[in-house]
Known about the structure:
Elements: E1 9-12, E2 23-29, E3 32-38, E4 43-52, E5 58-66, E6 71-82, E7 88-96, E8 101-109
Antiparallel strand pairs: 1-2, 1-8, 2-3, 3-4, 4-5, 5-6, 6-7, 7-8
Amino acid sequence: MTPDVDGMWFQLEVDDPAGGAPYGQYHRENDVVWAEFYAGGTLRSGRLVGRLRADGSFDASYCLLTETGELISGACHSIPEFDAQGNIVISDHFERADGTSGVSRIRQIPGPLREAS
């Protein structure tokens, strides 16, 4: 069974939880996936929009605004999976416009920390 991210809240996994981590809400309608990201860590705001693949993964573009005013943009291939507790974890294989790349993990969190705008 493929996880459905629609309406789910997620938070970026970070090495230093005391520093806070960005969180956001994902949405899906048919093959369109989008998300709004809120403050946490060094992030002020961000948006993502993409297209769902038949296997449940999705390809997306994103733009982020940091606390220092830096704009970060890029693309990602996101793979949602269930963890052992039944929560969704998304592995984001990203490549930024500046050429840096990597994999980040975003974990489902219980209930909203902030109401969607």
